[in-house]
Design brief:
The protein has 432 residues and is mostly beta strands. It is built from three helices and 30 strands. It has two domains: 255 residues, outer membrane lipoprotein receptor (LolB), chain A; 135 residues, Lipocalin. The strands form six sheets. It has a 19-stranded mixed sheet that branches. It has a three-stranded antiparallel sheet with strand order 6-9-10, with no helix packed on it. α1 runs antiparallel to α2. It is elongated.
Length: 432
Amino acid sequence: MVFLAAALAYGQTGRDPAAVLEQARTRLQAMAQNLENYVCIETVDRSYYQPAPPPRELPAQPVPQPACDSPSGAGRQEQLTSTDRVRLEVTISQGGELHSWPGATRFDERNVDELIRNGPVSTGSFGGFLNIVFGQPGVAFQYKGEQSVNGKTLYEYGYRVPLAASRFEIKTAAAWSPTAYEGEFRIDPQSLELASLIVRTVEPPPGAAFCQAAATLDYRSVHIGDSDVLLPRQSQLEIQLKNGPETRNVTTFANCREYRAESEIVFDEPAGADSNTPQSGGRGRVAVPLGLPVTLALDGPIDTATAAAGDPVAAKVVKAVRRPNSPGELIPAGAVVRGRIRRVEHHLLPTPYFRVVLAFNRVDVQGVVSPFVVRSEPGKELVKKLGASLELRDTGIFYWGVGTFLFPSNKSSMAIPAGFESKWFTLATGGR
């Protein structure tokens, strides 16, 4: 550890800043390692902004592109263009974060961007930053003085993590970009608790799609089981892109619980597979041909104010599904199909609408679970009117097995009611 004292005076607390930092680092390293025993639900609300156009009374001029060495948003007027939300479960393993879909039986060792395939994602908020900032050699610290926050005196420190020690990676385009970073954190000199941590990228790596990224994490102590655990109450990540837009991710953690690693880690799960899918011996599975019409009714409502990509979704088959010119039923009415929400988006410009994308991957017929892949598309006129896109990509390939639903609305949120019926057609699946 490299420590540079900015002041010799100990201030009101009378405690040595270097000693406080050393004691706090030891405590925080132990807490970061202890996070491997816990799992939380991670919800990320993402907002997308673009530079506002010049006033109408002024001659139309090109919007200047922000310089990469300028503060994010400095001197710029922005307008919100869209929002979306994703939800995962997260834990720590061997110093890194592991993710899974909510309710899945297994954690997935793939990068988080292979689960969240659209929009900016990052790692580190749950415990990665604690491991690096307070546990890695080569990090330089500087005492910056006392700060009074809500009537409590806190010590503020600056720090810098070089690229060689950094595991902070951001993905906004086709690849992850590691970057050196720096920032500040505040510690209670009496309790040695971490109150907040700020992370700022120092210089974007070559070829990065962003100019600057900055994250602010607020911490709290949470009692889980028999222990007190340091967890981020909220994390806000702001990314300034080179072509002008800016994104802001607000991450919250909830439903934290003790976790014992009895669950299996998935190494090579096929694209589109769901680790919550029950496995059966295969006898009696349904083989569904391509192009059969299916009417589905939602089991429960989907409220855009709270729903997120990753949430489980279920529906019932309204009418029996049959092969053409065949009296027998492939799938009886009332059979339950299950899958997950793939997107929950609110678009504001140029025309406000909601986009909800669902994907089903299995059907339960009298206790036998079979693969089930279907597609549903909105009308072409509505798509054109809203300027919407039906594209959803999975591992770089156009993902076909989804249903996209568009709802024009000027409201801030809307709910698709339970029982909502929709028309789908089947995609071919194998069976035995």
